[in-house]
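Thread title: Can someone regenerate the structure for this chain?

I was given the following input by a collaborator and told the matching structure tokens would be attached. They weren't. Posting the sequence so someone can regenerate them.
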Amino acid sequence: MTKVLMHGCNGKIGRAITRLIDSQENVEIVAGIDPYVEVPNKYPVFQNINECNVEADVIIDFSTASAVRGLIDYALHHNIPTVICTTGLSEEDIAYLKEASHSVPIFFSANMSLGVNLLIALAKRATEILATSGFDIEIIEKHHNQKIDAPSGTALAIADAINETLDNTYTYRYDRSTVREKRPQKEIGIHAVRGGTIVGEHDILFAGNDEFITLSHQATSKEVFATGAIKAATFLADKAPGLYNMDHLLDNSF
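Best answer:
Regenerated them for you:
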């Protein structure tokens, strides 16, 4: 039985994870952390992670970027493997968790969906073929009107994967309204749309001369991210210190 400490347990995805784990036999949530404690849960919930004295095998984090450093400090102090699912982390935050991974296992992914990670793999292959033929590359992401960060962490992960395929020779353009010039070829446009209750949509457009190819992924429920987080937690619980991601999980699954 894998014992989980749910960091951000009363957020939308935290609640989805609670519902899914409640129906599973090999994993359970033993405690939660959330500043909002009015939601009824079968497990104890602490407003401050440093108040938590419940032993756990692994932490799942779906919280806010500002809470991640404190979480990592807690994981280091208690030597608990940690799955970081929170987006909007700064470069300093990411460097901090990478350094921590030398001492404790950390799983970090900008998106916990199996489909999104397959999309990234397809985008890399398409880039190898199309970019050398003069195709322009644009990424359009859409999310609900409550999402704070823009562009999404997933859109940036897609752009980074594409750029790595191109030897990191392309630049990113977030806003063309400030510069009046023709589109440079070695540029990846990244566009954010916010509205309604859109769970998450990502399109990668490869625009060539007289032909266009679009790779798309749509999430219709937050449970796709919750499912991925649970799989990552059970995967990580017995691992040695190191930095793990979706590629490790997918390799372990097939």
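The mean pLDDT is 93.
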